Amino acid sequence: MTAKIAIIHTTPVTIDPLKALAAELIPGCTVVNLVDDSILPELGENGGNVSAIVDRWRQYAAIAESLGAGCILNACSSIGEIPALVQLRISVPIVRIDQAMAEYAVRNASVIGVAATLATTLRPTERLLMQTAEAEGREIRLVPALASAAYGKLLAGDKEGHDMELAAALRELASKTDIVVLAQASMARVLEQFGDEEKKQFISSPRLGMKKVAAVLSDLKET
């Protein structure tokens, strides 16, 4: 039977990259995309109050379940804490896209840069890293960097300006840390303008998150 995964997005920007990764890492799979681009603006207005989104997100997960998805991927780190709040009411396993990235970071570095263009993503990612480090029994120090100017350019339709602003912020953060975590999946494409050696200091969630989905589906197939 062909594997089916459902991806819940808060921006259309993540649809194509994650669909391509699914095709590469889970050959032959069927991908169902559910998008609600009103979530991030709402979080921006309510100060990042994720609880206001939980019931709506649970409904999307229930839809994914009804469509026969074998696994659900939450593609947004700003609401990365929601899957744990709804998993007990959903029989399909839910993967948060940044969990595998957090595990990799705390196992391979002690001084970790956390880069984001949205404040609503920065705080949950910091909490995830600290929780993961505690679970792993590791000591880490976080160095956060919020490139809000880059996000402003993106909202204005200036993608090139966004990429230049973000790349500069990432390079500065890299000079102060062992590794840099990209808090938003949509930031990963900026690394395309970096050299191979430079890229090694940065980690992003899309590929690691999709590998986690592949592992979950493989485990389900074996049971």
Give the % helix. 40-55%
- Based on CA inertia axes, which overall geometry fits? globular
The CA-CA distance between the termini, in Å, is 15 Å
Radius of gyration: 17 Å
Unreliable residue stretches: none
Strand order of the main beta sheet, please? 2-1-3-4
- Tell me the fraction of residues in β-strands, as a range: 15-25%
**What is the averaged pLDDT score?**
92
Report the major sheet: 4 strands, parallel
Please write the string of helix (H) and strand (E) elements. EHEHHEHEHEHEHHEHEH
Topology:
Layout: E1 4-9, H1 15-25, E2 30-35, H2 39-46, H3 54-66, E3 71-74, H4 82-86, E4 94-96, H5 99-108, E5 111-116, H6 119-136, E6 141-146, H7 148-155, H8 159-174, E7 179-182, H9 196-199, E8 202-203, H10 205-222
Parallel strand pairs: 1-2, 1-3, 3-4, 5-6, 5-7, 7-8
Helix pairs in contact: 1-10, 5-6, 7-8
Explained architecture:
With 223 residues, this protein is an alpha/beta fold. The chain contains ten helices and eight strands. It has helices at residues 15-25, 39-46, 54-66, 82-86, 99-108, 119-136, 148-155, 159-174, 196-199, 205-222, and strands spanning 4-9, 30-35, 71-74, 94-96, 111-116, 141-146, 179-182, 202-203. The strands form two sheets. Strands 2-1-3-4 form a four-stranded parallel beta sheet, sandwiched between helices. A four-stranded parallel beta sheet has the order 6-5-7-8, with helices on both faces. α6 (119-136) links the parallel β5 (111-116) and β6. α1 (15-25) packs across α10. It is globular, with a radius of gyration of 17 Å.
